[in-house]
Design a protein that fits this description.
The protein is α/β, with parallel strands linked by helices and about 210 residues long. Helix content is about 15%, strand content about 20%.
Length: about 210
């Protein structure tokens, strides 16, 4: 069992930082061990309410976040119901108001375009007030810049920023990225990670292989 299991606050006296896995209860949200969220403006325990938006069971879409991710204050995950349909001649969400317009309540999801799950890999850093849209996959080790709006998939170990977010650079060479993706240190036993922290923090990948 990971030491983060059931533990809410990673640091003594710091009520602004939480382990997300311990505070997320909603079906359709899955968070890996040690992934943390910091919020200095609101209670970080309200992550589901304040940061996972337009996420309704009728859509069946999911938010999946891997292990050892760092999610900064105000980052948002914007799901399908925020996307008024573009298939109609009008963007007005008539199906939501089915009683007013005599429509079938079962067709309520026709009001928006469902783009699918949001999938965040492991060891991802999501910057201050970044927004990630439905259907986006962010690869392991990626970095999302502050206030970026991510509309497309982000490759592993790639730094993106801007509106809409675009690649800025890769964190490492293709050869090192390939080795890291094969290694997946974040999935190793806690004891092994603890033993190799110095190598991880200083970039000595050979010591992990």
């Amino acid at each position: 069992m990971a030491i983060s299991e059931g533990k809410i606050y990673p640091r003594t006296g710091d009520a602004q930082t939480v382990y997300l896995k311990s505070v997320v209860k909603k079906a359709g949200i899955e968070v890996g061990d040690y992934t943390m969220y910091n919020d200095f403006m609101r209670d970080p325990r309200d992550f589901e309410k304040n940061n996972v938006l337009y996420h309704y069971p009728v859509n069946g879409d999911r938010l999946k976040i891997g292990r050892f991710c760092s999610v900064a204050c105000g980052a948002k995950f914007l799901f399908a119901s925020a996307n008024h349909t573009m298939r109609s001649l009008s963007t007005y969400p008539f199906p939501i108001f089915f009683e007013e317009w005599g429509l079938d309540a079962a067709d309520i999801a026709d009001a928006w375009d469902n783009r699918g799950d949001i999938v965040i890999g492991s060891d991802v850093w999501i910057g201050f007030e970044a927004v990630i849209l439905g259907g986006v996959t962010v690869g392991d080790g990626a970095v999302i810049g502050a206030r970026a709006v991510v509309t497309k998939d982000v490759p592993p170990y790639t730094i993106v920023g801007g509106v809409p977010a675009k690649p800025i650079r890769k964190r490492f060479s293709d050869e090192v990225i390939s080795r890291l993706l094969k290694l997946q240190w974040w999935n190793g036993p806690e004891e092994r990670i603890r033993k190799n922290l110095a190598a991880i923090q200083s970039g000595r990948i050979a010591e992990l292989e």
